[in-house]
Amino acid sequence: MAPMIAVANTKPMAKKKTEEEDDQLRKRNEELERELKQSREREEQMRKELQKTWERLRVAEEAEERLCCELGELEAESVNQARAYNAQILSLMDQLSKANLSSAVNNHRASLSVL
Fold it and tell me: Which stretches does the entry tag as region Disordered (predicted)?
């Protein structure tokens, strides 16, 4: 028998290794695509939440503006009421002063007529 040299066939190993790498790359690609999809969904959700927040802010600003107008009107009304109340107090004080003066004059006349 003649000596034989055994030569290993490396092609099946290289092919198997390439298939494993391809599988790993496919799995990684699928994982990245899932993460990208989730990221886009989160981004869309955040946009919707931001839009809702902007809408709430707009409503709050409009409410604040209405309240400021109402407050201004109430302040003006209270100033007018305070002025009217002050005028009424002055009028009543004047009437009381005149009544006291008239009463004093009448008392003085009465005391003079008794004499």
Answer: 1-26
